[in-house]
Design brief:
Elements (H helix, E strand, L loop, with lengths): L8 E6 L7 E17 L9 E15 L3 E9 L4 E2 L7
Antiparallel strand pairs: 1-2, 1-5, 2-3, 3-4
């Protein structure tokens, strides 16, 4: 399991129908424990669900798609992301 901190990039898998799933880069803006998070692979539309157990989650924004919406994902569902050139 990776240990992302504020400003790190992670990749999160999104569900695609009739083709292979895709992964998108997200920027981590926080971590804490919660029982509310988006299930991975992410379905469209993204929706946070309340789960029974409280676990480590990361707050993320999707780079280049919608940088105004913050989502929570289980820490164990994210993979190390690639660095994004912001110039």
């Amino acid at each position: 399991m990776i240990n992302p901190e504020f400003g790190d990039y992670v990749r999160i898998e999104h569900k695609r129908y009739f083709t292979e799933n895709e992964s998108y880069n997200y920027k981590v803006i926080g971590r804490f424990k919660s029982n509310t998070y988006v299930d991975v692979p992410v379905q469209c539309p993204e929706k946070e669900y309340i789960h029974e157990e409280v676990i480590e989650v990361v707050f993320c924004i999707c780079c280049g798609v919608d940088e105004t919406e913050v989502n929570r994902f289980r820490l164990e569902d994210v993979k190390r992301g690639i660095e994004v050139n912001e110039n």
